[in-house]
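Fold this complex.
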Amino acid sequence: MSAANVAAAPVGPMPAERARRITRRRLTGLIGHAYVWLVLIVFVLPFLTLLGYSVSGPGGTYAVQNFQYVLGSFGDNLWWSFRVSGLTLVINVLVALPAAYAIVRYPFPGKRLLFSALTLPLYVPGAVIGISLVLVYNFSYHLTTSIWGLVLAMAVGTFPLMLTPIVVALRDLPVSFEEAAACLGATRWQTYWRVVFPLIGPGVSAGLMLTFIIVFNEYLVTLFVHPPSVTTGPLRVFNLVRTAGLAPTTAALAVTMQVISFAAVLLFFRVFGTRYLKGTYLI
Amino acid sequence: MAAELRSLPLVAIAPEVRRRERNRRLIGLGLVAPAALLVVGFLYYPLAFIVQMSFTLGSSYLSQAGPDYSTANYAAMASRYLPNVFITLQLAALSTVVNLVFGFPFAYVLVRRIRYRDVVRAFMVFPMFGALYIAFGMRFILLPGGPATPLLQALGIPSTAVLYSLPSVVFAMSVFTFPFMVMNIGAALSNVDPTLEEAAACLGARPWQTFRRVLLPLTRSGVIAGILMVFGWNIGTFAEPILLGSLNEQRALAWTLYQRGVVQTDYGLSSAMSVVLLVIAFVVSYFSLRYSRGALVE
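Structure:
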């Protein structure tokens, strides 16, 4: 209504009208901020209540024992989570770096199709990846008892998360840097290690961070393909919540996993900022 | 080498240039090969395998007599398991709608009004840690004796009516995928010049008209990409229906295929369910790639 009034009276609104408009604008601004914070609180509410639950003892007392239990009885699960994430990160970097470089710098036929084919794992539901891999592991690869089956399953699911930030970072890096290095007498490897890699480092780190937080918390594909001897942290949480009901110790494990993941994210934000996450789904 | 070539006539260096072009192409293919092998070996071959498996009965693929081929699994999908397909689509669609309704204003405020965007982003990471923790947290909140009990008692609603219900599943799924919706819409919104909105207001458009006639058309691709991404992710919902759903929601396909396939070893039926999920996911991702990611390659 105010906009229509302004159009009708181009001389400018009267002071009272203007004051009202300013209050209204402040009010909508306030509502906007309040809305965003409300949503953010809803986001962290499951985490916060679990945190509260995890420090509650049998008699409603503060209990650090729950977290001691995490390091003791669940320590093995945490350790497996770290090992699987670490191995997946190594494989992902080794595979994604050359692929991203080729996609950005080299000409070859069917590039667009290939890129789509490489990013498709993101869109395949976890349960489908899980069932297809567990059947293939059983009937043709014979990988069911090896941790590599689990690691490769993780790698294929998170590979696009590694690839995309590296492709974005490489695309932002002008070829002239490499050409200059070559003109100054650097060999191909020197160019790669001393010029290209440091400059796309933040992109690679973005991929590492995304892969880590996804693999570290992955329970679904793990549920299908984990070797009998391996139970990762999130899988333990899932099994306990599903079968044993709720316990403060389970909450403590879930909280520990989330805190570790969040620490990784904060570390990344602190060191590199959010700029290098564009193109991935965190922006 | 390069100097020698430059002194030669063009016709003479043409084969050399062509050879180098071909070499570059080969090197490119070589660099991509590990990635292609990983994806073919651990995604596309297994998917082809379950497509074949979905045409065999039960666990007959393993039997001495050889696999028993039939289309009975798909017949079962179209009759007995049709409600499972339906509830899966329903859950994904509902949570997509919730995300769209709550996500657009959120993205708008985030892009246009907020300066402390990194703080918001850090908070928005929490849902990405997985649907499992969200479902676990909500289950704890809603369980009888949990934090929400006094509120529910005051309203006169029994805890279990809220805990094991469609809305709680949809809510958990929406929280899980909300960041994807916001990021897709936000990316599109940040490409829209704010002066366009001011111009619309100057021309007498009301806020709703500005949204309907200016903002929405300009962010259409982002909105569609967000819808597709959220829908595609929620098709495979797993932890939320089991931990928060009633028997109806627990029929969601991903969970059913786990039960039939891994627990009851009915590989054929389980594969058929996967293929149905897969087809939905492929259709969604095809359009999604067309709307968002394709731009990254060219």
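Chain A touches chain B through 104 residues (CB under 8 Å).
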